[in-house]
Design a protein that fits this description.
alpha/beta; six-stranded antiparallel beta sheet
């Protein structure tokens, strides 16, 4: 296979684009990135980089004809062959499709209808659109993209023949590896229009819990589902089913009624149960400039005054599997070789001050348990992405508060969690990365003795992309002890996504699980049980304690924290507003005016 020059053309450098970028680089190709800002910018990027291939994994506009007529352009569409339209995955979640797929097709004058180079299908989970996108869609997109790129690198310049139009004949398989949908494959329905709010709308007096969840999950992330809370129009998201036990307390409530608060989520009655709604965004009046528009917040915080009148319904860390909550704890194994598992599943991996405080309290609680190994599992979609930029942005609009003060509180709370992990010296600790980790969340993972990651995980262990933040979470202690001073400096400077395999190679993590995503947690548990019961467990613990004592004597953790926070104070309160500008643009989803130069290497 000949290495290619590949230009990644994308609306944003999101989780899917980052994974493809890192995997294609690892395969030996030369990549550069251009954000889809304007046709003229794309044309200029092609002229500067002179790519063999343009790959578009996430677009919201057509590729200009002046580009696709000049160079082969492959578009990654989040739907199976035959599917067309801007709401592919939304429709699949809304309809409850049992299987779905991803297609890599060649750009031409027709929207999502060019020649198909490759595709891959997958079984759907009952999950949000965002969760499916980060997991199954990304994995299928990787398989299909690598297959298409391999064909192109091998000299093929036309897509394999497509012998079927509306769908493959009974029993036949597509030549690029797809299959007859009647034998387990997936096939699209042709053109599907934008899934509009009138079709997403929840009818609380009629819709079952399953229907409500399907509608809310189909709009999760963007655009949300237009509804109202306390008579105020807003978009809802981050929905979870309520248990029968929880709903039983409110059996006389009318469908649509708001009943209770838990972990910032609002409990709302349905005709046959209830749902927890974790996120909400106010509906803006027509004509509101995007930079002044509303943004997603924790639902009970967005409606803090109204929610204060609802009862709180917290749950213990150890509870029934169907009882939703952001934090959960389980224990496994025989006495003397027990493993504790503390998971913290925060929306988009954002750890606000309140969430950090709850997590630290949970950590202190589970440290009282007689376990030999403690697994810190983060969430299914993200381990952690550090401080919560949306809650910080909200503080900028709150009387008596400021974004700088909220940032300062949040970074202190993050540091307190990291310190709690570092000071857990009476047992071995392991960070288990089921999903991606970025910024402070990546360094929080390093606070544990070991880091285990699934092979699909992408890490972004740096801060500078957010307005040149210096960062904290004890990174100046944690990173050099793994990579050395020079290695730590290089990693922080590159500002690029890192695959779990590469992280293992350089010593950033300790284990890369190359098995299927399904069963990863169980494999980690078995690995931890073996560690807890191993003959040299006590020796490993003694070595850990001795090293921590030596490190503390050489330079106290308090000194690392003080030095990091001195730099962060300048980021938050100093004369340079870069962090505040970058955070505002990120939260309000402002389009980029230019592609960052560490991505657009053709512009260096």
């Amino acid at each position: 296979m000949n290495p290619l020059r590949i230009l990644l053309l994308c609306h944003s450098f999101n989780s899917l684009t980052q994974r493809l970028f890192a995997e294609l680089c690892a395969a030996g190709h030369t990549l550069s990135v251009e954000l889809d800002i304007a046709d003229s910018v794309t044309e200029e990027a092609v002229a500067l980089f002179r790519p063999d291939l343009v790959l578009a994994p996430f677009l919201k506009r057509r590729i200009p004809a002046t580009v696709w007529q000049r160079v082969t352009c492959l578009v990654v569409h989040p739907g199976p062959p035959g599917d067309q339209g801007p709401s592919a995955l939304d429709w699949a979640v809304w309809r409850g499709e049992p299987r779905w797929g991803v297609t890599v097709l060649q750009a031409n004058g027709d929207f999502d209808a060019g020649p198909v180079w490759a595709h891959a299908s997958f079984d759907m989970r009952p999950a949000t659109k965002g969760s499916l996108y980060r997991r199954e869609v990304t994995q299928a997109a990787l398989r299909a993209t690598l297959a298409a790129v391999q064909r192109f690198a091998g000299g093929e310049r036309e897509a394999p023949p497509l012998r079927f139009a509306a769908g493959p004949p009974q029993g036949e398989s597509a030549p690029w590896g797809g299959s007859d949908p009647r034998s387990g494959g997936a096939w699209g329905r042709g053109w599907q229009p934008l899934l509009r709010q009138n079709e997403r709308a929840v009818h609380w007096a009629e819709d079952s819990t399953a229907t409500v969840l399907a509608k809310l999950r189909s709009g999760d992330g963007q655009p949300g589902v237009l509804d109202a809370l306390w008579g105020q129009p807003c978009y809802l998201g981050d929905a979870h089913p309520a248990s029968a036990t929880t709903v039983a307390e409110f059996s006389d409530a009318e469908p649509g009624a708001l009943l209770a608060v838990r972990d910032g989520a609002l409990l709302r009655r349905t005709v046959d149960g209830g749902v927890w709604i974790g996120q909400a965004r106010r509906a803006d009046p027509p004509g509101t400039p995007p930079a002044q528009g509303s943004f997603k917040q924790v639902a009970a915080e967005l409606f803090a005054i109204e929610a204060a009148g609802l009862p709180q319904r917290p749950v213990p860390l150890e509870r029934a599997p169907d009882e939703w909550g952001e934090l959960r704890y389980t224990e496994h194994g025989p006495e003397g070789a027990r493993v504790g598992c503390l998971s913290f599943d925060f929306y988009n991996g954002a750890m606000s001050t309140a969430r950090c405080e709850r997590l630290r309290a949970a950590l202190l609680q589970v440290r009282e348990r007689p376990t030999q190994v403690l697994l810190l599992l983060g969430g299914e979609g993200f381990f952690s992405n550090g401080i919560d930029l949306n809650s910080i942005e909200a503080a900028a609009h709150r009387a008596g508060d400021s974004a700088a003060d909220a940032s300062w509180r949040n970074i202190h709370a993050m540091n307190d969690v990291a310190l709690g992990v570092l000071q857990t010296t009476d047992r071995l600790t392991v960070s288990v990365l089921r999903g991606n980790a970025g910024a402070g969340g990546a360094f929080l993972a390093l606070a544990a003795d070991q880091v285990w990651a699934h092979g699909s995980v992408v890490l972004n262990p740096h801060y500078k992309n957010m307005g040149n933040l210096y960062g904290s979470e004890y990174w100046t202690y944690l990173l050099p002890r793994r990579l050395g001073e020079a290695g730590a400096k290089d990693l922080m400077a590159q500002r690029l996504p890192l695959l779990a395999a590469e992280a293992l190679k350089i010593g950033l993590i300790d284990h890369n699980d190359g098995g299927p995503r399904e069963g990863f947690e169980e494999r980690c548990l078995q690995r931890a049980l073996a560690l807890a019961g191993s003959y040299n467990q006590s020796g490993a613990l003694a070595a850990k304690q001795a090293r921590r004592e030596q490190d503390e004597a050489h330079r106290p953790l308090a000194h690392y924290r003080e030095q990091e926070l001195a730099r962060m104070h300048r980021n938050f309160y100093g004369f340079d507003p870069s962090y505040h500008v970058a955070r505002h643009h990120f939260v309000h989803k402002q389009p980029h005016a230019w592609t960052p130069r560490h991505l657009a290497v053709h512009r260096l």
